[in-house]
Design goal:
This protein has 2 domains: 182 residues, 3-Layer(aba) Sandwich (Isopropylmalate Dehydrogenase), CATH 3.40.718.10; 137 residues, Isopropylmalate Dehydrogenase (3-Layer(aba) Sandwich). The protein is 37% helix and 17% strand. It is built from 11 helices and 12 strands. Strands 3-4-2-1-5-12-11-6 form an 8-stranded mixed β-sheet. A 4-stranded parallel β-sheet has the order 7-10-8-9, sandwiched between helices. Strand 11 and strand 12 form a beta hairpin. The longest helix is centred in the middle third of the chain and has 18 residues.
């Protein structure tokens, strides 16, 4: 059996990603060839710093499909980046390097050689520059994808925030029936297509206890009617439920996905429950995009103490597809 390669963009060069990448390769043997897009010079510096002993196989991305790949060596597409130290502070000097890395990855993915993609973290402050809410939105823009969603996946329970990295004061202005329906349909299609199972979705309310002292209550006027309409169309969706109780053990056992109204409403409990045992999957793109559920984490640079579990889970998920 021929396994499609997993394309990996390292992202911000001054992050813990290279450390957990090396640890992931040591932890488990993967059937799918893993191709890293990063700076050869920098990777060698970081390998020396982290005491990693593994050979590198350079790949020319223009002739990518001609290579017979395996994971005996680190398959590397070199993107030049001039940095003298293995790790340094994050600035905007890495922006062009990260952009070029994504350019190369998207060219390979557009050729349909593979549909497996992982990216390391980037700096929202320096790379995204408030132009995009997150990498989810950045990649949606780059691929011209209008309907997309963030799914934090664990085989026991997954969550999907209706809005992502949006300030709380703007959340209620964004929520509408069409947005709820589009996210639910993306989740349903993903579970059916990639997980070969049916989704059973619980949806939270926006307000505490799904109640509001305001004349306009989003739970009553928007969320409840939308759920009723979807149920009539034979969708497996239930709610809205109060966000402070839906994650109780007896409640969450009934569902495999909980859709929330905003980021921290569902990401805080899922990370408390599973910590690093979760992966960030972007739904609605023309390929399967996964990001390990962590940021650059500058405080841990070069310490060799970071937990690789989220990246191992991401690689394992794609390896089985």
């Amino acid at each position: 059996m021929v396994y499609k390669p997993i394309i990996v963009v390292a992202g911000e060069p001054n992050s813990i990603f290279s450390e957990i990448f090396f640890k992931s390769l040591r932890h488990k043997k993967f059937k799918s060839p893993i191709v890293l897009i990063a700076s050869q010079k920098l990777i060698k510096l970081q390998m020396k710093k982290l005491k990693v002993n593994k050979k590198i196989r350079l790949i020319e991305h223009l002739f990518f499909e001609k290579y017979k790949l395996d994971n005996k060596k680190i398959n590397l597409i070199d993107v030049r980046f001039n940095q003298k130290k293995a790790f340094d502070e994050i600035t905007n000097k890495s922006n062009k390097y990260i952009t070029k890395s994504f350019d190369i990855a998207l060219k390979i993915l557009n050729k349909k050689i593979t549909n497996k993609f992982i990216n390391g973290p980037v700096s929202k402050k320096f790379f995204l520059k408030k132009k995009y809410l997150g990498i989810t939105e950045y990649l949606a823009h780059r691929t011209k994808s209008r309907n997309f969603a963030m799914l934090i996946y664990n085989k026991e329970l997954s969550v999907c925030p209706l809005t992502t990295h949006l300030p709380i004061k703007k959340v209620s202005k964004i929520i509408n029936k069409d947005l709820i329906k589009s996210k639910i349909k993306l989740v349903e299609v993903f579970f059916k297509t990639h997980l070969k199972e049916k989704s059973k979705i619980a949806i939270t309310g926006l307000n505490p206890h799904c109640e509001s002292i305001d004349n306009f209550n989003e739970d009553e006027k928007i969320i409840k009617p939308t759920v009723k309409n979807l149920i009539k169309s034979n969708h497996k969706i239930f709610g809205p439920f109060a966000a402070d109780t839906i994650f109780l053990k007896k409640n969450r056992k009934k569902y495999n996905v909980i859709i929330g109204m905003y980021h921290d409403q569902v990401l805080t409990p899922i990370k408390t429950l599973f910590e690093y045992d979760a992966i960030n999957i972007t739904l609605g793109l023309p390929f399967i995009r996964i990001s390990p559920d962590h940021g650059p984490n500058e405080r841990m640079l070069g310490k060799n103490k970071s937990n690789p579990l989220s990246l191992i889970k991401a690689l394992t998920f794609l390896d089985s597809r």
